[in-house]
Amino acid sequence: MREFLRNLSMGFAVGAAGGLVYALALWALGRYGVSYRLGVDIAPHLSHPYLYQRIVWGGICGWLLLLPLRRAWFSRGLLLSLVPAGALLLVLLPMRGYGPGALALGTLTPLVVWLACAAGGVFASALLRAQGR
């Protein structure tokens, strides 16, 4: 039981760090005009609520890293980043009125969202690997 709780804690912690990286990556893509150049209208403002929400959801998504995938840490991070990106593009953003894939924000919105999720996923996977898991 102790090992199980340790794994849950580690998964949440590395996921929360990955969520922070995701939030900062999405903010940086908007702040430095990358999303604008790609024709995507995503430029979040850096604020406590913005960071908090993504850190907590990143921690929850970090539990995906505990699945028994025997892949290299980089490919594991990229592969598992498809889950939160898919949830954003197919459920959360359409519920906010941006349509399927959030294409109302721009044609390349799925790419921008996945790039930010991939940055967080790879970072979280690297942190987990640094812990020997």
UniProtKB/TrEMBL annotation:
Does Transmembrane helix appear among the keywords? Answer: yes
Q: Would I find Transmembrane among this entry's keywords?
A: yes
Q: Which UniProt keywords apply?
A: Membrane, Transmembrane, Transmembrane helix
Residue intervals passing through the bilayer: 12-30, 50-67, 79-99, 111-130
Q: What is this protein called?
A: Uncharacterized protein
What organism, scientifically named, is this protein from? Answer: Microbulbifer aestuariivivens
